[in-house]
Hints:
The protein is of the alpha/beta class. Helices cover 41% and strands 17% of the residues. It has eleven helices and twelve strands. It has a six-stranded mixed beta sheet, with helices on both faces. It has a four-stranded antiparallel beta sheet with strand order 4-5-1-6, sandwiched between helices. It has a two-stranded antiparallel sheet with strand order 2-3. It starts with a helix and ends with a helix.
Amino acid sequence: MTDEQIAQKKLYAGEKKTSMKRRDDYHDYSDRRMYMITIETEGRRPIFGTLKGDPFAPSDSEQAPHIELTELGKAVQSEWMGIHGYYPQIEVMAIQMMPDHLHGILFVTAPLPVHLGQVISGFKAGCRKAQRALVQAEQCKVAAKPLPTAKSQPPIPAKVPASQQAVSQQAASQQAVSQQVVVSQQAAASPSHPSLLLFAKGYNDLILRSYDELPTWVNYLRDNPRRLMIKRAKPEFLRPFFNLHIGKQCYSGIGNRQLLTAPWRIAVRLSRRLTDSDIEREIFRYLEAARQGAVLVSPAISPAEKRVMRTVFDAGFPTIVLMENGFGPLSKPHGEQFYACAKGTLLMLSPWEHHNEKRKLTAHQCQQLNLMALEIAALK
Length: 380
């Protein structure tokens, strides 16, 4: 790729800052590729639907977690499914509506005449048009609703003076007008009203790097309602936290902080020179310690450390993992990590700030993380 092409692509990248909505500097967003797109409502307002179901119900049952869509949510979903009609080069693979955002998978099967961002902008414009149509329908219902008349009011006793009867009729008329104003104000305050912004600015995209990732994407979308329900039930284990001081170090993280108070914590630090038979012995030793109540602490850098921590994690025993990449306000655990955090068997910690770029650990960072693991294991 030439310097001129790189410069052209950077026009779409936006300001260089930590943001999940910043585009990949070196990717051609009109090329054939598959994307997972996430779009949020303005202010994360839950206007697309309501979370229903049982978080522990089987996925194929009626009680499985799902989103009961509002009329606006149905309109947005329909607009997403209609993208292919505007861009035949795009196949709509999936969508998962959530109360305050949506996830969708798009497959660009042939080069697009425009940047993918323009496709998303067109989708948002179509949703705003649908939003206005819903509001107009609401206003028509309000306008068609008959005002209360004198005939619908309780009869005025005959002995009441004529002047007082006139005053009562005027009051009834004013009340009817007031009721009509209230109904109109309620329609204007509806979540679908165009005076309220529908979507937050921008969108997040993930680029499919390997077809092996596609089933993971599809499962992630399908499982989103269940994850949200569990997250609401266990918020303390699934929200990122910051400024956790341990010794002289400050950490961000996600997971069960109570693991730091476990009476027995062991730092896992193993040489890269271990043979397979050596590693198997270490796995047996650490797994036995975990069965007896030990919480293992490690950055899991060497192959032996990775295998030990993976075995203990798979067995459902608690672990504390130190990571190079930190956490942001919207960070969340994924896949197996999500359910381990929800069960309280995982704590992820990082001493450094969050970044979007992939970075390799330096030898100095490896040394630092191992020393931190020893410090955490030695906490009183």
